[in-house]
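Let us work through a complete example step by step.
Step 1: write down the sequence.
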Amino acid sequence: MKRIAFFDTKPYDRRSFEAQLDEGEFEIAFFEARLSPRTADLVKGFDGVCAFVNDTIDEKVIEILKRENIGVVAMRCAGYNNVNLKAAYEGVHILRVPAYSPYAVAEHAMALILSLNRRTHKSYLRTRESNFALAGLEGFDLHGKSAGVIGTGKIGRVMISILKGFGMNILAHDPYPDQDFARREGFTYVDLKTLYSRSDIISLHCPLTKETHHLIDADALTAMKPGVMIINTSRGGLIDTQALVEGLKSGKIGHAGLDVYEEEGDYFFEDLSGEIISDDILARLLTFPNVLITAHQGFFTREALANIAETTLGNFRAYFSGAPLENEVCYRCDRPECRKETTGRCF
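Step 2: predict the structure and record it as tokens.
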């Protein structure tokens, strides 16, 4: 029986994977610790590793995996920007879950938009204290406004459909535009400068790569409408957070909804309610009344958890049986096409 070490796990991870596991198929050890150079020795005696978004799979960790004859790391997520692919090449196969539930993430992005616009989170707190005043809760009609969607993969496409349902005008940007889809859905692909200048709401749905790192920076903010709403449910590194803070202070940004944060690894998924936040930028963001931060929960639905478990276990089954690795990350070249959501392999 193959043994697999799961890192950075919570009780809900165990429940979802145990529900999908065939009896006697794999022996799984669920570790609460994150995978890092300090914890990598825990893999001794295992045949495979399962990691998550805030685990560190750097050159040192890859060296330890190779030393212990572990040839597979299955990411139970879509992103893999925390993996040193160059070090993994020729020795460790990196697998992922390219799609678990685009509806989960897109619906969460929409929830951030609605909450920020209509201040429902603030209204809830007020009425809990018998304060029924409306001052400070004014929002705006989404109908007729322009929404910019950056990235039109699976999640971005669902987001466009949701926004269209609210009667919004859609502008989209993607390095690989699907014009047939745009014609069917009735939206327009534009360059980033146009999207920035014409969008009332901008929602990010693209992977974190060298090209998209700090896609939203001071220059991008300068091109945007005053009072723009920015939503990020993808990866924290897409936004230069210091520039975001400055934009909020100046009033250039009217609202920001963040389910991810550049330095979230030390905070998200943990209960730190009894501790002081030492990250000055995160602490500053939490003081803005027009910022809503959730702790990377966009994926967190029953359906998504079940799909993640099913695909991840399927990835392990394929690897150990010698079947084709349909969800392997492409690290054999640096072609931008290989970063598309629809493929994990070279063309």
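Step 3: interpret the result. The two ends are 34 Å apart (CA to CA).
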